[in-house]
TrEMBL record:
One GO CC term, this protein: ribosome
Highest taxon above the source species: Eukaryota
GO molecular function, one term: small ribosomal subunit rRNA binding
Record's compositionally biased regions (Acidic residues): 127-148
Residue ranges of the region described as Disordered: 124-162
Protein name, entry field: Ribosomal protein S6
Amino acid sequence: MPLYDCMLLVKPLVTREATAELVARVARRAYQRNGVITDVKSFGKVQLGYGIKKLDGRHYQGQLMQMTMMVPPSFTQELHYLNKEDRLLRWLVVKHRDAVYGLEFINEDDGKYEMSGFNRERTKDDFDIETDSDDSESEFLTSSDEDSDAYKYEIEEGDKKK
């Protein structure tokens, strides 16, 4: 079964319980078709780029939900009942490309060549790592303080010459 993302954009004033019930209804229908819900994410309220006109007015915000599921390809046609749902502004189903799942995932080269992309020619000695002691840091601070004092002194002398 392929992997799909179902994006639901719910009206901003719909309660969390009603949104959860809507997601649960889609999930029940997926389970009836021997599907599996792998992930549910809520992105909260999002600002829309343009207003979506519905019977109750224009909506410039919405609650965005994402459901990731493994369902048969014919399941996407069954979701058209969402068009009549009053609580939804928009919905979208997207199929994952190149998703590896099922037995193909288990049998895939068993990780033999997992580290083959790394270059093994470099060694630890190739990298220049310098360790500084606390003494060198304090010397740096005092030398910069001395420079700033010399600069102030030069300015004061310049003022006296005028």
